[in-house]
Amino acid sequence: MPEGTIAVAMSGGVDSSVVAGMLARRGENVIGLTMQLWNQRRLPELAPDGPSGRCCSLDDVYDARRVAQHLGIPYYVVNFEEQFERQVVKPFIEDYLAGRTPIPCTLCNNFIKFDQFLEMAEGVGARRIATGHYARLNWNESSGRFEMRRAADRAKDQTYFLFGLTQAQLARTLFPLGGFQKAEARQLARELGLPTSEKPDSQEICFVPNGDYAGFIDAYFREQGLAPAAVRGELVTTDGRVVGEHSGVHHFTVGQRRGIGIAAREPLYVIATEPATRRVVIGRNDDLLRSAMRVRDINWVSIAPPAAEIRAAVKIRNKHAAAEAVIRPIDASRAEVRFDEPQRAVTPGQAAVFYQDDLVLGGGWIE
Q: What span, in angstroms and rounded, lies between the C-alpha atoms of 227 and 257?
């Protein structure tokens, strides 16, 4: 491959298609690579009725190939199914069974899209990669670090899912759409004549096409010929009173309201899951409020690990409005977060990402 080749991670969606088109139009040496992550023929009982909004489907591979042909760039499909199952799917299942609520898209970014994909790109002569993520990067001369910033289109900003990227990975990554509004990206797709210009965005997890996480776990165990551990247990109130039974803690997540199976005068929510005792704790909305939490495995993206406490706005879910807080480091990779105002449904296994204005300081996993 010529010097300066850029490998574009082509998902088959409009955003990565636009990135490939932008780079090709400005004369870059571009190759398209699509990651085959999950065999869509597996677990057919989970297939949704009607069109699916999941990413990385067989239709997406077909669309990515059409875009590459339209642009006249080399294109390859890379099979990462084994790595994906080992580093994303199995940890996803283990987390749910352990009472945590995982984020598989972040695991995929950390261990597949910005790790093994970079290695694969280098193997075909591309020192840099480009993706359709909505995020911005800049180089800070004074700190000697790459900084990640929120996208110009806050509604499409994806930095919450990118907190695990390292400085070495950022040095080789381009986010060409970081300064774009989504409508501008679609208009550019039309101008470039891309076959995906009107394609809807994907929203669902690629290996859970119907959105039923618990159903996926049950089906996966059946496929593997494994007998799930005993999962039935008690539904209890916050004061320990047994009020019912449930079919497994993996059917519940903190903050859940529907599907609890208990009739009450006021709405009831899942307050906590306790896999060791197989108990699911339920209570009122006020019981979900938390003033503090601990965060583990922190990756400080744009700054060095702080030696003293700092103030930041903290997101505990992708759609959560970042809440003002004090972050007190315990060590380089753990911290205690104390919110100015109590936050609802602080959920173990979800990500906590720290911001100062549009700067992404870092992030980790809620304990």
A: 29
At residue 209, the pLDDT reads 72
CATH code, domain carrying 102: 3.40.50.620
Work out the percent of the chain whose per-residue pLDDT is above 90: 72
- Interval 87-94 mean pLDDT: 92
Q: For residue 88, give every residue at least 6 positions away whose Cβ sits within 8 Å of its Cβ, in sequence order, or none.
A: 37, 104, 107, 108, 111, 112
Q: What are phi and psi of 160, to 5 degrees?
A: -55, -35
The dihedrals phi and psi of 188, each to the nearest 5 degrees, come to -65, -35
The Cβ of residue 182 has, within 10 Å, a number of other Cβ atoms equal to 16
Orientation of helix 14-25 relative to helix 182-191, angle to 10°:
60
Active site residue 56: no
- Quickly tell me which residue has 């197989």 as its tokens: 278
Domain extent at residue 259: 229-283
Dist CA 356 CA 52 (whole Å): 37
Looking at the structure, do residues 312 and 338 belong to the same domain, yes or no? Answer: yes
Q: Global pTM?
A: 0.91
164 touches 106 (CB < 8 A):
yes
